[in-house]
């Protein structure tokens, strides 16, 4: 019983997994922000692509 208790205590105090947890939390926040602002992000991307298409068309005409 002491061995199981000691194993759980060592696992709880182990700090190696903290970096993975931090990265997962950062990714989760980025995903939530992307979902909240997806309409604005899509409009922004479409504007960028249309701007690029317009500029390419101007260069091809010359």
List the defining traits of the structure above.
62 residues; mainly alpha; rod-shaped
Order of helices and strands: HHH
Strand content: under 5%
Q: Give the distance, in angstroms, between the N- and C-terminal Cα atoms.
A: 82 Å
User: The biggest beta sheet, please?
Assistant: none
Gyration radius, in Å: 25 Å
Helix content: over 70%
Task: Indicate the overall shape.
Answer: rod-shaped
Counted by DSSP, the helix tally is 3
**How many β-strand stretches?**
0
Average of the residue pLDDT scores: 82
Computed structural class: mainly alpha
Low-confidence stretches: none
Write a structural description:
The structure is a single chain. The N and C termini lie far apart (82 Å). The chain is built from three helices and no strands. With 62 residues, it is mostly helical. The chain has a domain at 24-55. The model has no long low-confidence stretch (mean pLDDT 82). The chain crosses the membrane at residues 20-37. This is Putative Flagellin Flp1-like domain-containing protein. Keywords: Membrane, Transmembrane, Transmembrane helix. Residues 10-50 form the Putative Flagellin Flp1-like domain. Pfam families: Flp1_like.
Short description:
By secondary structure, the protein is mainly α. It contains 3 helices and no strands. Keywords: Membrane, Transmembrane, Transmembrane helix.
